[in-house]
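To whoever picks this up:

The parser on our side crashed when reading a file containing two proteins. I've narrowed it down to the boundary between the first structure block and the second sequence. Both blocks are reproduced below exactly, byte for byte. First block:
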Amino acid sequence: MIAAKNRRGVQLRLRWRTVSAAALAVGLLCATSTFAQETHPSQGTPPSAVQDQEQPGPPEKKNEKSSDSLTTKIRIHVTDANDKPLSNASVYVRYYESGGFLRHEKLSELSFKTNQEGSVKIPPIPQGKILIQVLAKGWHTFGKWYDINKDEESVSIKLESPPHWY
């Protein structure tokens, strides 16, 4: 325990928790600064030894194909009850993406509008469970989970007219 005097001469006592917390903070700052220092491979070794060390090469094409195989490209066609394309309909795509808080999956969302032909091209997204929602003025809202495991997928969505309210 540490004792100190204030201006009036009254002795103050500080608790160990305060002192130990400050000491812990200083210790952590010192430890992180030593780990953050970067060492260059050429320090302390002759130049010939640095050249003999293996340099990391370009990634193999197998790794690129495997990462591409985990994604999918989706094309969505939106039509009305009479099979006419609906333009300017809002399309929302939700999917799970790895690497969120504490390495848990997080739900990501993309939003698009359909073109004159009633279609939307979705950029590559991870394969798995995908939620597709479609909203259009004057039409019943559509939403459905799809389990997509292919490299490319085409989804046709037919919107129904809304129920008549009296």
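<<boundary where parser fails>>
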Amino acid sequence: MLGCEAMRRRALAGLVLSLVAPGCARPNAGERPAAKAPDRVEPVVIAPKPVEAGGSLAIAAVFPTLGRYAVSGEQSLKGAQFAVEDVNRAGGIHGRLLRLAAYRTGSYFVDARQAAADAVRDGALAIVGSNSSELSAAVAEEAEARGVLQITNVSTAADLTFDPRTGRQRPFVFRMCASDEVMGALLAGFAVEKLGARRAAVLYEIGRTYSARLARTFGARFREAPGREVAEFHYLALETDFRPQLRRIKEFRPDVVFVPGSFPDATLVAAQSRELDVHARFLGGDAWSSPLLFQRGAPPGEAYYVELCSPAPEFDRRYAQALGSDPPGCRAVLAYDAVHVIAHALSRMGRLDAAALVGDGLAATRRRLRDTVAANEVDGVTGRIRFDARGNRRQGVALYQVETGPEGQPRALVRGWLGEP
């Protein structure tokens, strides 16, 4: 992308050329004019084979496997695949196999939106995905408009389950995790009630919705307690030197420093805080969840963060054995449970004949499936699963504390649960 100065220079050059040599703007005889730029960005979607009516029961999985969200997308997709394998190993649903129709996309919202539209057209009964709030919002627009159930595994944007422009609920959109608003409020409550904090500094990434929402919610909840003060500081994307902000934070003398950013940002902030002798407890959201957290240096005081699910040791071992890689945090297991919720609802609906999977019958089946999911309560790998009136899973978050291990390396240990179990 051109910077502002480069664009100004290009515009100026074009203006001068048009003034002093207008004839140069025309192609010479026999020369082909430059091709016109495309009017739209072509979506990146790798679609599976279409669903055969009357055969297996198809659930679409819409996850990115290219671009910035690819790692999380692959982990989420693998969790969904595990769930379908387990359902089919147990005999399927009323004699029919469950099919996971995987729509692999790029990491841009137009990719996710196109994949959702394709999944609806191809006959999917429901959609699992995506793993990013930006992509899930694009899927949600299609799911709601077409009357198809969507369950996202780890998208936390509060306005995902309702239309941010109108405030109206999206009845067909559900999520398997706590929202940004829930996380921020629970962390603030923990800081006030358990840590006894009276002064909180919030250092967030300006321009990143996730970070700004967590900062706003945390600050609002913290200020509700009598005698509490909050000071907000921000940084830009790709910024790596946080010492100017940390010097001001040190002057504020906070009891806690909340950094609702990514684990690389938190790691740099921690190391530079130790350098500047900023003594406070550090808090973070689910984006801190990574084995690489604080590998370049731990903060000077205690550090806590929240995660979207409780540990699932058996599932993690299965994932590690199958892929030969580290456990994926909550992404895969929550995708697993999302498929489990859909399969359980399909089982409750009874056997579906061929007419229920095409045309008007398919539309009616999709509505029944949505209603059954909304009313059901299911025991999943991550615990009890039930949804509130807005499609949000009724649950809190797991609390982790980061401490120094026997060999001097940081390690995260679960310390409890915040909010509704």
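After patching the parser it read the second block fine. The first helix runs from residue 4 to 20. The chain has two domains: 45-177+313-385, 181-307+397-418.
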